[in-house]
Amino acid sequence: MSLEAKTILVTGATDGLGKLVALKLAEGGARVLLHGRDQAKGEKVLAEVQAATGNPNLEFYRADLAVLSDVRDLAQAVTAKHSRLDVLINNAGVLGRETRQMTGDGMELHFEVNYLAPFLLTELLLPTLRASAPARIVNVSSGGQAAVDFDDVMLETGYSAMRG
């Protein structure tokens, strides 16, 4: 499959797997929308990927997935600029926090970032993805990520770094 003329959003594209995926997609000629929560780091990675690939069709979008209003803003920014989205790669996530943390939205950090944020982003982008059919959604997870305990989604009992 040719990646040219494809628009692909990669969350968590400033580190690790997300950064590598963004690089490979850019090498293939895709328009890559890189997401990260740190503006300076995102701009640095964007410049690195552009320099390495020569692909001018790269954009950076800043959003903290621990803030649901940022997720909404991300979806709005992407759809305002792009009438099509061929692939959404939900890659961003957190793991291994030593202490239980709550977000400003009143949610446990792992639950909001790893589950709620990608669900919300996907839901908000679905109309654009459907209009771009055959579009794809890729959800990246980790073997270190525990299954959701629906009796304790906020991890109020027995919190551990690997349970989140």
Residue-averaged pLDDT: 92
- Helical fraction equals 25-40%
- % residues in beta strands: 5-15%
Number of strands: 5
Largest sheet: 5 strands, parallel
Secondary-structure element series: EHEHEHEHE
C-alpha-based Rg, rounded:
16 Å
Distance between the termini: 36 Å
Strand order of the largest sheet: 3-2-1-4-5
- Give the low-pLDDT segments: none
Model description:
With 164 residues, the chain is α/β, with parallel strands linked by helices. It contains four helices and five strands; from the N terminus they run E-H-E-H-E-H-E-H-E. It has a five-stranded parallel β-sheet with strand order 3-2-1-4-5, sandwiched between helices. Helix 2 links the parallel strand 2 and strand 3. Helix 3 packs parallel to helix 4. The longest helix has 23 residues. The mean pLDDT is 92.
